[in-house]
Amino acid sequence: MDIAVFENCAGLSKVTIPYTVTTINYHAFNNCPNLTIYGYSNSKAESYAKENNIDFVSLGKSKTMGDVDSDGKITSADSLFILRYSVKLEKFTDEQIALADVNSDNKIDSLDALTVLRRSVGLDD
Ligand SMILES: [Ca+2]
Ligand SMILES: [Ca+2]
Predict the structure, then answer these.
(1) More confident call, 27 vs 39
(2) 93 and 53 housed in the same domain
(3) Which DSSP state fits 77?
């Protein structure tokens, strides 16, 4: 994600960085004296804010990719949930959709469910 466009943003007071962002351009928020970053705890957003002395407001714990039922663990239940969604038996929130696409191909299908299942039994990272 290239967010260098925010440089010299004296008027910018708030930006929300999703947990899916794992890299932030070092200069992304240069000269933004009034800025507060909103993001998830233990995410890139939080470490970036600390490194650059920018105010940080936590939106809660960061989520784990694949943990669509948000119980903090990757289990076969998550895999089944994703599989059911892929065949339209479940409805997902936007957040769940973001979490479910574990291979980041913008589709949620049985491949994502299989990846989550493999992770749940420790076969993949
Ligand atoms: Ca889970
Ligand atoms: Ca996918």
Answers:
(1) 39
(2) no
(3) H
* Domain assignment of residue 21, yes or no: yes
Do 40 and 80 lie in one domain? The reply is no
The pTM of this model reads 0.57
Distance 112 CA to ligand 2 centre (A): 5
Q: Compute, in angstroms, the gap from residue 71 CA to the centroid of ligand 1.
A: 5
The whole domain housing 36 covers: 4-61
pLDDT of residue 76: 97
CA of 120 to the centre of ligand 1 (A): 9
Is 67 a member of any domain? Answer: no
Ligand with an atom nearest the CA of residue 79: 1
Average the pLDDT over 9-22 and give the result. 82
Residues 27 and 51 in one domain: yes
Residue 68 region, left (φ>0) first, then alpha (ψ -120 to 50), else beta? alpha
Q: Environment class of residue 3 by beta-carbon count within 10 Å: exposed (0-12), middle (13-18) or buried (19+)? A: middle
Total structural domains within the chain: 2
Identify residues whose C-beta is under 5 A from ligand 2, the ion.
Answer: 101, 103, 105, 107, 112
